[in-house]
Amino acid sequence: MTDKEMSVYDHIGELRKRLIIVGSLFMASVIGGFFLAEPIIVYLQQTEQAKELTMNAFRLTDPIKVFMQFAFLIAFIITFPVAFYQLWSFVSPGLYEKERRVTLSYIPISLILFLSGLAFSYFVLFPFVVSFMMGLANRLEINQVIGVNEYFQFLFQLTVPFGVLFQLPVVVMFLTRLGIVTPQFFVKFRKYAYFILLVIAAFITPPELLSHLMVTVPLFILYEISIIISRIAYRKAKLAETKMELENMNKD
């Protein structure tokens, strides 16, 4: 067996170990989520957006379905930074020492961005959409019967994708520092990216123009910020490579 083959097997073994760590933590976090899900669900039903609504269960399994969804969401949030750390640990041997320190700082930034996306969608977008829908129902003299499962499904549909989409600057910065993409690529890809973001916004918002714009405009701004971040990361990566080459030349 050659050294190259051993190296491949070593990488596969390392990846397997890190996936086991992430999976084990996720399962443990799901168990922890069982204890946190109930108070969170009760709290959310007493908020401004939900207190005027009467939650109904149209199926016998609706309450347990909502309970499990929250348990898994809590587990995802807890596991999220650890998964990023394991990813960093897997790729960090191929980075320079300075790049390792820089990319390690992406983990707390990523968590902050994810929570910021959730907060923006829950405190800004979700109240507006709920108010609009209720107002429309009242004007049309429609008596709304709200299912608890449908309510929280709608909540997840608006908030969780926003938390994920807010990772765009970190992902762009990470890929740029690894040399996988360049700022020129994102500039060239801009019109296609805008179209994709428009489609994503259409999927996570009701078929109503104002709420669609409330999602689309921040996503466009986020993409432009990502291009700026990519340029900064690319410039720093090139400077680090130049510095390393000069140091190697001096050693020779």
What do you see in this structure?
There is one protein chain. A two-stranded parallel sheet has the order 1-2. The chain starts with a helix and ends with a helix. The chain is built from nine helices and two strands. Mean pLDDT is 82; it is low at 1-6. The relative contact order is 0.09. The chain is mostly helical and 252 residues long.
Concise account of the structure shown:
The protein has 252 residues and is mainly alpha-helical.
Write the layout of secondary structure elements.
Layout: H1 3-45, E1 55-56, H2 62-91, H3 97-104, H4 106-139, E2 146-147, H5 148-165, H6 168-177, H7 183-188, H8 190-204, H9 209-251
Parallel strand pairs: 1-2
Helix pairs in contact: 1-2, 2-4, 2-5, 4-5, 6-9, 8-9
- Could you give a short account of the major beta sheet? 2 strands, parallel
Question: N- to C-terminal separation?
Answer: 33 Å
Low-confidence stretches: 1-6
Question: What is the molecular shape?
Answer: flat
Number of strands: 2
Keywords:
mainly alpha, single chain, 2 strands, flat, 2% strand, two-stranded parallel sheet, 252 residues
